[in-house]
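Appendix B.2, paired examples.
Example (i):
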Amino acid sequence: MMRSAMLTLAGVICLALWAQQNKPLSGKKVAMVIAQNGFRDEELFVPKKALLEAGAKVDVVSSATTICKGMLGRTAKPDINTETLLKKIEDYDAVVFVGGVGAKQYFNDKTVHKIARTAYKQGSVVGAICLAPVILANAGLLKGRKATVWHGAADMLKKQGADYTGNAVEKVARIITANGPKAAHRFAKTLIAAIAKIRLRGKRVAVIVENGFNEEVLEKLQAVLDEAGAEVTLCGARSGTVKSSTGNRVRVKSASRRADAAVFLGAVTAKVKTKVRAYVGNAITEALKAGLLKGKTIIGWRNAEKYGAKVTEGAKCVRDDKTITCAEDALDELPEELAAAFSE
């Protein structure tokens, strides 16, 4: 009987690993917004099929829940309308706006604009293809960002301050734009990769810095956390300004504010109201000297044993309960470890 139970457990673990590898969006929820009349067929059905195959739950959304007609003759029945989507936006890891001539109905739709802005602010992926990037531009999401769109609408993006590239697909942080139906497959692939990284949506992460911080490391860390959907706040031991190693100053808030996690690039003794803590690069040395890692298992680090820590040789990002140590060249691994710490 014990052998049977062990085999069952092994099967569950294998199934979970298989789902993670073959269904990277398992547990994720995506809304695809289409026009009532004139959505571009491939731009809905190609990404939708790919998202479903990747394990996501996909809801089709329109201004009404009556049958919608595509430009090439196919139809789709919306699951919910845009008003409902706005009310339930926090349930979605991504919102995708489908193009086609009908997308023009949303160019100046305030509800749809709010959907786009709210989705992005809460840490979700926002995508748009063909003419639909104009919706994002008019919602204020593309100003100063690289983006693409159907070539005939390029001036509309530029007017709103976007850096129009004309490329088939553009990805900047959690915003993905594509220029038309020929890019549908690549658009879908880019969406899946971006949504799979959403592990920290709804989590507040304080990044703690001190004078002499490395700007490149900070920029990389902020980008990685943003891609994971975290709400990132730059903090110091106290509010004010902090100077980087090159002399540039940045404004910081006090580390005493409440956060779900703190990632230290310095000032490791700053008081932060959180149990989940990550130490990156030189902050590990500071934490060791301060006795914060005594008895903890950490990455291989000079003099770790001297200060009572245990090391895992070869690993670059290690979690021991709710304490994480991470090398500067392994920041891509940090969101997964933070997510694991939250789940315990």
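Example (ii):
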Amino acid sequence: MKLHRYILAGLMLFAAALQSCEKEVADFDISTKPMLVATAFISPQDTALAVEVKRTQPAIGKQLQEEELRVKDATVTISDGTNTVQLTYNTAWNKYFGSIKALPVVANKSYFLKVTTPAGEKAEATCTVPSREGIQVTELNYNTRAAESYGYKFLEHKIDFKWQDKPGIENYYHLTSYRTYSVSYGYPPIVEKQHESAYTDSEKIFVSDAKHDGKVIQSPEFKITSMDPDVVPKPFVVTAIISVTDKPYYLYHKSVMEQESVGGNPFAEPKRIYTNIQGGLGVFAAYNQIKVQKQIQ
């Protein structure tokens, strides 16, 4: 009898464990339905309104090709609350485009994105264009350093800059830099402008003023590597661009970089990509550029 009681008790514990496992599985809902992904960044410096619309890969089943994920039959609109522009799909760019003349992008103004499909899907978001007021570049520096690696001599062109942060509000920045020069070829000579991007650690190009409110902020050092002597003709121009961004722009790009940092590591915890899209994924965000240049003789 004792043996039977032990067996019965064991079966009851096993059944309870199964119920617990069943509850955990039931609570973990995996959606197999693809979602809309809308991505758009607007700026007063843009020449057009552009929105990319896709669907996510199915969680279960066959993985779709990139072309199959594109949404080409959506109705895409951007509004400022008074005027609304409907964007049209461009097959060459695989994006929806609209006229910025019909809907100018203005600092301190809010804009509304709406995406609907014939299947009844709907995705919406809003963003506010940040202002550049009270933010200015105070210094732009350029210098070179001769270097050598494995017997190869080269030049490092270094660009850095400083800017004054506006106090009292949260500010977010995206930093970029490059140099521009002219080259000529053919006869009669054809002159073309070339742009050469400067690089730095990717995690340093998105900056918050959380610890620098109202202070002068120092950029990271941007570099361009060239032959020694440099074959680029002088004069050339170095450019620094500070994009004053809204918080969604900053959070989205930071989360994308964090996800890229784990790469294909199967033991790393996946990073959640930030989204401000209601009814879907992606981001609708804004930025406002400050550009400064220096001619190098």
